[in-house]
Predict the structure.
Amino acid sequence: MTTLSAGSTSTDVAGRTRPATRWTVIARYELMDLWSGGKGLSILFGFTLVLSILAYLASADAGINLLDARESVGLLVTTSIALGTLGAMVVSADAISGERDRDTLESLLVTPVPRRHIVVGKLLAASSVWIATLLVALPFAAVMAGGPGVMSDAVTVLVVSGSLSAAALTALGLAISAVTMSNRTSLVVSLAVLLALAAPSQLPAVRSSTTVGPILIKLNPVSASLRLAENVLVRQEPWPDQLVYFISPALAAVVFTVVAIRLAGRLELGGSR
Amino acid sequence: MNPLHGRIGRRALRDTAVSLAALGVIALIVAVSWPAAAATTLPRQDATASLDVTVAVEPATTSVVLGDSLDLQITVTNSGAAATPPLVLHLDILDPDSDGSVDPEDWTTTLTRSIAEIPPGGSTDVPWTVQPISAGTFTVYAVVVRPTGAGLSASNVTEVTVEDKRSLNPGNILPLSLGAPVLVGGALAVQLFSVRRSDRRGRKRPAEIPVGVST
């Protein structure tokens, strides 16, 4: 919940208000709400717990040569991308529909902040969940990599590809949250979209296809990121061949962010109750 | 009727429809990815007439530490008067102390290999590397079969003892695997405790304010 006071707007040296920086005020309040209210740390704790168990089991398998270091790091990186983007998307899917459900959207809309600034601020705050999960995942990747080569590949995949996917899905979650009238609907739709996007890279029919499968995987930002991690870390395919897997996450990040900001102009009151 | 109410009602209906559609997508994905029970047809049991070949697996008894590879040597010798046809060599693994089955594909990527014709009195050596995936005592044997028609010859059995190798701290991951959740969980606990404490203080405050004092 974001509650702004009149003093939240920043002023320049001449005493004029600067609406261009109001999104920073929203972002600051949202970040405080997210990380001091327990929600952000709860998500991060769940993520850390899952990652710790996974890392221990993968390292145990690597210890008896059932997995090599690249395979175990690949497993860690793909899981981190999937769970990290899920956490960020859940937070962003709650951003506007949650305010609507809690009857706090009205007070937010009457504050002297342009609606697109509200959306940008909330988007940045939700993205902080991905940054936090990234900070947790990196030490695990460093310990499990066992060498600078695997380590640099893992960090590049996590930071670049994972961040693009997270940005795309966070913006998508926010767009869904802006157009749905209840939080429940927003969360269900967001999770269904995430599942639908992640499924193609896991379905045997798509994975084994040599015609439609690769196209579907490259078009889909989530499956492109997961496939990139697999190709680079497990199959050790050269980086130049993998650049194509950055296209759809980057495009999706830009398009969904623009859509979310555009939808902000149509924000209206009303709820499912 | 207030047109806003009608619009909100329509949006609520639309949201419900969208939720149902989303659940439908989830159900469809689960249904598609569910492993279909494959219809299997058992092969016809042909007579197991012996081939004029002998199969030997060496060493006859061996032990290996879990995680290490084991090199087996399989020798197929033609003990007949005529050259053998092309044959198929198959490796199998079982756990005699357990009713459960061992999946040999976990031990080796190839379970079957082709053998070219062997002249009378000749032999073919086939090296086979396996990697056990669990500790215990296992029985390994090989059979040679004709690709078509009857004929089968089995080897001696090799007893493989796999010693367990477990580390509490595999790959030095234990400190991080324990430390990271403890750190984040501790921060969460402290945060929740402080939030509750400030909530309690907030509830107590009105009673603590003396009557008549302006706030």
Observations:
- Chain A touches chain B through 46 residues (CB under 8 Å).
